[in-house]
């Protein structure tokens, strides 16, 4: 429909006005809670239909709370002064340096030289390279944009036809390694910090870099091993003989010797990851480590002021901040208590048993992805819906953030996953067929639930389930 956005915008605003000013405040809910509820309804419609840029919708939502007297400015915008926001900014800065200097591409290509130049070997190489690189860049789009052209070059060198089995499989191997494994590391994507930021303080403290990594080890193993066998089963060409590694060697030769900027960036990122892992030992917040790392890169002229304008996604940073603000404000306005009572009959059976949760909640998220395109928006809506029930769960709410971050990354239909669209655009939509994308997504959806189920005993040993 030509005017879909305009119609959706009008409907969203009208619903917000009706809820705020014309519907009587239900028993047990304050007028402030009604304002927050109304703004959330309007914002969701704006996000689902992309009426205006997502970050602008978020800022208007926060401002409406202040203008209509639901909460004070200090509460509405408090999230922007938290460590979570600064680690996102710092992490994106480190990732920008790794991409700018060519360090990430060099690491990926170098790893590929250790594997056979056939479908099985290069699929495994893309899995390995992506998993190693994932925690270094907290943004999916540059990783998919960088990895898929490498996969296309390998596909061409191996003589695979566009949209054929081999071409589709290598494209998906690049996405699987560089994008899917983002859920394995807290620092691998800004959305992990966004979902973590919606949790209570105690649950957030449980999700430091090291704990997140440990909690996800069984899932990561299942996703990598299961994903490798899935892609080779579905897409391995009949004749899978090794060929020359000339393409990879040529790409490395074009990069030349490792530059001063690459060496500095590699050292800074390595030190940052060590400090993130040992955050509780050094007692230095992860955000401070990230900001110091970026400052060092600026001081040594690896990053310049212009990079902060062009290489950092400020609209994403602002959007994440606005959605994270919902947690505190909903509690402050009394909305969480009211929603808990209203939604209890439907939600309580799902969260009453950890095994039921890790099966049913991903399925709910998969279904939501047919409607809500944005990965962060989907995860935020699910987390906010469960927010009133965190105190009733027999397991830590930290697990909700884990389930959400693994389950929003589906690509059954092309529009469901923007980073994968970026990767596809980087190779002119010339590698994977729609059928291949759908089959691999269905496989991932099953593997994700299996991986989460296998994580449960570990989580129980850790005392969080």
From TrEMBL:
Q: Does the keyword Transmembrane apply?
A: yes
Q: How does it sit in the membrane?
A: Multi-pass membrane protein
Instruction: Look up the record and give one Gene Ontology term from the biological process aspect.
Output: carboxylic acid transmembrane transport
**Which Gene Ontology molecular function entries are recorded, alphabetically?**
organic anion transmembrane transporter activity
Chief place where the protein resides: membrane
- Superkingdom, taxonomy of origin: Bacteria
Keyword Protein biosynthesis attached: no
Intracellular or extracellular location(s):
Membrane
What keyword terms does UniProt attach to this protein?
Membrane, Transmembrane, Transmembrane helix
Enumerate the transmembrane spans: 7-25, 31-52, 59-80, 86-104, 170-190, 210-235, 267-300, 312-330, 342-365, 371-391, 398-421, 441-459
- InterPro entries linked: SLC13A/DASS
Q: Name one Pfam family in it.
A: Na_sulph_symp
Q: Which GO terms describe its cellular component?
A: plasma membrane
Similarity comment:
Belongs to the SLC13A/DASS transporter (TC 2.A.47) family. NADC subfamily.
User: What is the protein's name according to its record?
Assistant: Sodium-dependent dicarboxylate transporter SdcS
Tell me which species this is from.
Companilactobacillus alimentarius DSM 20249
């Amino acid at each position: 429909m030509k005017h879909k956005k305009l119609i959706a915008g009008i409907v969203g605003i009208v619903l917000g006005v009706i809820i705020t000013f014309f519907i009587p405040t239900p028993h047990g809910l304050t007028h402030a809670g009604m304002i927050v509820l109304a703004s959330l309804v309007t914002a969701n419609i704006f996000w689902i239909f992309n009426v205006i840029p997502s970050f602008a919708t978020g800022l208007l939502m926060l401002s409406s709370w202040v203008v209509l007297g639901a909460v004070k400015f200090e509460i509405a915008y408090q999230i922007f002064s938290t460590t979570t926001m600064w680690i996102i900014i710092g992490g994106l800065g480190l990732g920008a340096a790794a991409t700018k200097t060519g360090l990430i591409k060099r690491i990926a290509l170098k790893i590929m030289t250790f594997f056979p130049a056939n479908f099985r070997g290069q699929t495994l190489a893309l899995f390995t390279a992506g998993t190693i690189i994932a925690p270094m860049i907290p943004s999916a789009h540059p990783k998919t944009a960088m990895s898929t052209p490498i996969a296309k070059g390998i596909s061409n060198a191996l003589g695979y036809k566009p949209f054929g089995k081999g071409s589709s499989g290598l494209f998906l191997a690049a996405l699987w390694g560089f994008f899917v494994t983002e859920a394995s590391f807290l620092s691998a994507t800004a959305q992990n910090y966004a979902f973590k930021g919606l949790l209570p303080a105690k649950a957030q403290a449980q999700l430091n870099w090291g704990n997140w990594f440990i909690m996800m080890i069984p899932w990561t193993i299942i996703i990598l091993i299961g994903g490798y066998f899935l892609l080779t089963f579905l897409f391995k060409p009949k004749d899978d003989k090794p060929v020359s590694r000339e393409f990879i060697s040529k790409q490395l030769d074009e990069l030349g010797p490792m530059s001063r900027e690459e060496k500095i960036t590699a050292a800074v990122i390595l030190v940052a990851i060590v400090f993130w892992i040992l955050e509780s030992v050094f007692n230095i917040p992860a955000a401070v480590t990230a900001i110091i790392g970026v400052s060092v890169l600026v001081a040594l002229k690896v990053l310049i002021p212009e990079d902060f304008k062009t290489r950092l996604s400020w609209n994403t940073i602002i959007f994440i901040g606005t959605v994270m603000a919902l947690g505190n404000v909903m509690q402050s306005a009394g909305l969480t208590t009211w929603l808990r009572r209203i939604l209890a009959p439907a939600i309580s059976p799902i969260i009453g048993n950890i095994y039921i949760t890790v099966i049913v909640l991903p399925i709910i998220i998969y279904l939501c992805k047919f409607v809500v395109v944005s990965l962060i928006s989907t995860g935020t809506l699910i987390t906010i819906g469960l927010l009133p029930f965190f105190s009733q769960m027999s397991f830590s709410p930290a697990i909700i953030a884990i389930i959400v971050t693994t389950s929003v990354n589906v690509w059954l239909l092309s529009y469901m996953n923007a980073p994968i669209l970026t990767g596809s655009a980087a190779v002119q939509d010339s590698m994977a067929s729609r059928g291949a994308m759908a089959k691999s997504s269905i496989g991932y959806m099953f593997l994700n639930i299996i991986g989460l189920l296998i994580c449960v005993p570990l989580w129980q040993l850790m005392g969080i389930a």
